[in-house]
Amino acid sequence: xxxxxxxxxxxxxxxxxxxxxxxxxxxxxxxxxxxxxxxxxxxxxxxxxxxxxxxxxxxxxxxxxxxxxxxxxxxxxxxxxxxxxxxxxxxxxxxxxxxxxxxxxxxxxxxxxxxxxxxxxxxxxxxxxxxxxxxxxxxxxxxxxxxxxxxxxxxxxxxxxxxxxxxxxxxxxxxxxxxxxxxxxxxxxxxxxxxxxxxxxxxxxxxxxxxxxxxxxxxxxxxxxxxxxxxxxxxxxxxxxxxxxxxxxxxxxxxxxxxxxxxxxxxxx
Length: 269
Known about the structure:
The chain is of the alpha/beta class and 269 residues long. The chain folds into two domains: 5-101 and 183-268, Rossmann fold; 116-180. It has helices at 56-63, 91-100, 119-129, 135-148, 165-177, 195-212, 223-229, 247-252, 257-268; strands spanning 5-6, 12-13, 18-27, 30-40, 45-49, 71-78, 82-85, 102-105, 183-187, 215-220, 232-237, 240-246.
């Protein structure tokens, strides 16, 4: 078990929200990820970085319940039950967890939105999934979250397909955060966006993570994104974690040759 973690606001956490041990996954004979272990604490952002094919997306899929691990364990601090082995949950229990306590922000907004229903309905569906039924309250919550992610209120009844890429991503974020999850998985949340749009989205994400006290597992190939959002980093290569530590320590003084290569390649661009 890792030691207690102190955050910038002075809070001290010694009980992890997510505890992973020896996690591995293979696609047939091809390695996805191998022997990954870490603890994630409440309010902490863990960045997972590496080049394409490093195993970071496979790891995220296992952590978020979209792929069953081949070996190892994932324990989550279930409300009222403490650290619980996710392998022991039924499909229905896992679905409830994914609708209530978790959020998943996909790289491609279309993977995380229902494109055939309005922006307001995309947000409202998440509330209905956890029991909300009052139309006025659901619509008011949708309007509040549209404002938080800087989408004009008069777009509430518009379909997401009429939105720009950056606006679709902001809508996906609102859809995931409206039910106040404790843990959010983010897969390249700024990928494919123009630089100016990325900057606005990163500023929005940083503010929401701090305001809501979210725990986040963030997959990105962009070290600038990792530096801005993540408290800690894990560097992956060929399915394995080759280095981990505080973000500034890993990026300013990388020890593993692969980490050094990643950092130096960014500096040369």
